[in-house]
TrEMBL record:
Database matches in Pfam families: Methyltransf_19 (PF04672)
Species this chain originates from: Spongiactinospora gelatinilytica
CDD domains: AdoMet_MTases (cd02440)
Protein name: SAM-dependent methyltransferase
UniProt keyword annotation of Cell inner membrane present: no
Biological process terms in GO annotation: methylation
Molecular function in Gene Ontology: methyltransferase activity
Coiled-coil regions, chain positions: none
Highest taxon of the lineage: Bacteria
Keywords from the UniProt entry: Methyltransferase, Transferase
Amino acid sequence: MTERETAPPEINTGVPSVARVYDHFLGGKDNFAADREVVDEVIRAMPPGWRPSTSALDNRAFLRRAVRYLVRVAGVRQFLDIGSGLPTQGNVHQVAQAAHPDCRVVYVDNDPIVLVHARALLARDPGTTVITADIRRPTEILDNPVVRDFIDFQQPVGLLLVGILHHIHDHEDPGGIARRLVAGVPPGSYLAISHFRDPGPEHPEESELAARREQIFTERLGVGRWRTQEEIVSFFGDLELVEPGVVPLQEWRPDPGDLIEKHEIYHTFVGGVGRKR
Ligand code: SAM
């Protein structure tokens, strides 16, 4: 069978999607030729021997550590994971529920393929649900009846914007989107962000590699922004940043025994967590 026949009709397999390209970077199977071509193009633009999974795996590991921190240290029991992506190993609800069984997760993504795959996987888990919505309309997410039903807005919420804001154009105001989401959750809530970074003149070779990837993402996926440290920190607004702040993903509260591997693009992807006072 062709890919077109195996995919549900609402999925356009001929056009690459961020969720499916990321799935291929992670070594997943829920992607099509158009998605794999984007990854191949990135590989050609990178130094020989570069492993395409490095950043994606760093990002998933950051996500796992951030969720565990929020459950174990901060006492968060409910999560709004926006730009959740295709189900993969160590999904947010699995990580959170391993730390505390009462944890509940709403997965939000604007790509219909995420809904198709997530529904099949999550149908068995009463602590988890999934909706299709666009982060560029944050009020629609906060007011969504499924979200209102699932999340208790009197209790702290863990807002996860992991690997999504760099897919929002400057003119769509990613900082304003984050602020509006944070305004909708109670004090004591947390915001976790991971974001592509242009490390600037301090790491000129990595900055050049970031520019190459930005060009490919822009041409093939519409947007992919490697922003400055200042821009990314500003997305936390007046939240109190949890130590160590906004840092290369592997440096955010590594687990004991974790080895830091400073690969070719180590400084071009950062993450942080902030607390709403
Ligand atoms: N959060 C997961 C992680 O970090 O492993 C997945 C990140 S993946 C790189 C980005 C996800 O954001 C994709 O699944 C994509 O479909 C989703 N996305 C991109 N733009 C979006 C938008 N405007 N609204 C909602 N989701 C969006």
